[in-house]
Structures are given as structure tokens and as C-alpha cells.
Design a protein that fits this description.
The structure is a single chain. This protein has about 260 residues and is of the alpha+beta class. It has 2 domains: about 70 residues; about 150 residues, OmpA-like domain (60s Ribosomal Protein L30, Chain: A). Helix content is about 45%, strand content about 10%. The chain has 6 helices and 5 strands, in the order H-H-H-E-E-H-E-H-E-H-E. It has a 5-stranded mixed sheet with strand order 1-2-5-3-4. The longest helix is centred in the N-terminal third of the chain and has 41 residues. The radius of gyration is 33 Å and the shape is elongated.
């Protein structure tokens, strides 16, 4: 009788001793599900952070160069915003311009007479012309033509309107043909535009000019070299919907 009892109790004892395996399997399954959820949440947060970061840059520093990689273009209206898209286009244009100008001049660093910068109007190529244009002359000198043509070829690939602005120095003498700095600065800007139309086949409807004499200086400080900074040509590639107004104050530039 005792043997029968022992035999009957054996299956019950075996089932009880292996019950912990079920609980252990459930625990492992729950932990796996937890880590999957945490991983998914971290990926969503990373994508949101990238989009928010781009939006903050555009909102608080519209002049900053914003470069977005392919991994950041994953949906969302902020990355595909027209303003950000135009920023990327202008950044690419600036990089191409800088490289083509350095290649043309055969140097690795931009000379002090040339600078590239961006503001709310668009991309600006600033050229100090004191060492190029003769005093009181509006004729484009031969040593300036190659770099002007290289600049024109580069920006002509972008479907943007362009304005060329001329500025003079207060101390610059005017010839009989140019009674004031207005006429002289405007004539210099017109000479650049005419060169592009004649030699590069620019569409004249994309081009405009302006002359501001010595009334929009970069600096008011005295000294021949400092005053000569005001004698310049600025090639402005306009952003969409931005009115072409002159630059009235110095801007930070990369040489």
C-alpha cells in the first residue's frame, strides 16, 4: 500500500519542481519586450531631437550655415522647409564659389581683397577694388576680369537673381565723366554686368545694378588703408523674396 502511494505522488512532485521554468520564461519574455520598447523610444527621440535642433538653428540664427546630412532628412516638415532648403543651396553655392575662386587665383587662402559672406539678403562676394580699378575709372581692369568671369560662371548655374553694387571711397577723385561717387560706383557695377552678358551670355533679366557712392561705408575710421575698404564691388546673389537693399554696416566675413 505504501509503495502505491509513493508511486502516485511522484508525478505531482515532478510537476511542482519544474514550475519555476514557466515563471523564468515569462520574465525573460517581459525583459526582452521592455528592451525592445526602450530601443524604439530612443530612436524616435533621436529623430525628434535632430528636427528640433534644425528648427532652433533656423529660428535663432538665420545667417548660420546649416548643413543637413542624408540621415537627417527622415520626414517632418522642419527638414523639408523651403527656408532650410534655400539655406542648404546657398551654403553649397558659397562652398563652390570659394573653391572656384581659390583655384582661379592659385592660392589656398582667400586674399584680403576678397571675402564671402551671407546675410538676410543672400550671398555676397565682396571685392576691394582699390588695387584694381584706376582712380576715377569704371573700366574693368584686365587683372580683375578672370576672377570676375570665374565668379560669374559659378553663380550662373544657380537660378537666382543677382545684383551688382558699386561703392566708392570719400577720398577718391572723380574724373570729368563721373561728377560724383554715385555715377562712378554705378558705372563700375554696370561694367561687371556688361562683362557677364557679353562674355558669359547671362540673361539680363536676372541682373540689376546699384551705385551708392561713399554713403554706405564699411568703416568710418580714418587712415588710407581703412578708408580704402569702402571702395568695393559687391556681387549679391539674392534670396527668394528678399528686397535688394545695400549693406550699411560691416559684416563678419570668411577670408
Amino acid at each position: 500500500m505504501s509503495r502505491v502511494s509513493k508511486r502516485r505522488s511522484s508525478p505531482s512532485h515532478s510537476s511542482s519542481s519544474e514550475r519555476w521554468l514557466v515563471s523564468y520564461a515569462d520574465l525573460i519574455t517581459l525583459l526582452f519586450a521592455l528592451f525592445v520598447i526602450l530601443y524604439a523610444m530612443s530612436q524616435v527621440d533621436l529623430a525628434k531631437f535632430k528636427k528640433v535642433s534644425q528648427s532652433m538653428k533656423a529660428a535663432f540664427d538665420p545667417n548660420a550655415k546649416i548643413k543637413v546630412g542624408a540621415d537627417q532628412q527622415t520626414g517632418g516638415t522642419s527638414v523639408n522647409d523651403p527656408f532650410l532648403a534655400e539655406n542648404r543651396e546657398f551654403n553649397r553655392m558659397q562652398d563652390e564659389l570659394e573653391q572656384s575662386m581659390l583655384t582661379e587665383m592659385g592660392t589656398e587662402q582667400m586674399p584680403e581683397q576678397f571675402s564671402l559672406l551671407q546675410d538676410e539678403r543672400g550671398l555676397i562676394v565682396r571685392i576691394g577694388v582699390k588695387d584694381f580699378f584706376l582712380e576715377g575709372s569704371a573700366e574693368v581692369p584686365d587683372d580683375l576680369k578672370p576672377i570676375l568671369l570665374r565668379i560669374g560662371k559659378t553663380i550662373n548655374h544657380f537660378d537666382k537673381k543677382i545684383k551688382v553694387e558699386g561703392y566708392t571711397d570719400l577720398a577718391e577723385n572723380h574724373s570729368k565723366g563721373y561728377p560724383s561717387g554715385w555715377e562712378l560706383s554705378t558705372a563700375r557695377a554696370a561694367s561687371v554686368v556688361r562683362l557677364w552678358v557679353q562674355d558669359l551670355g547671362f540673361d539680363p533679366r536676372r541682373l540689376s545694378i546699384g551705385g551708392y557712392g561713399h554713403y554706405q561705408p564699411l568703416t568710418d575710421k580714418t587712415g588710407e588703408w581703412l578708408r580704402s575698404l569702402n571702395r568695393r564691388i559687391e556681387i549679391l546673389v539674392l534670396r527668394s523674396g528678399k528686397p535688394p537693399t545695400p549693406s550699411a554696416a560691416p559684416s563678419s566675413a570668411s577670408h
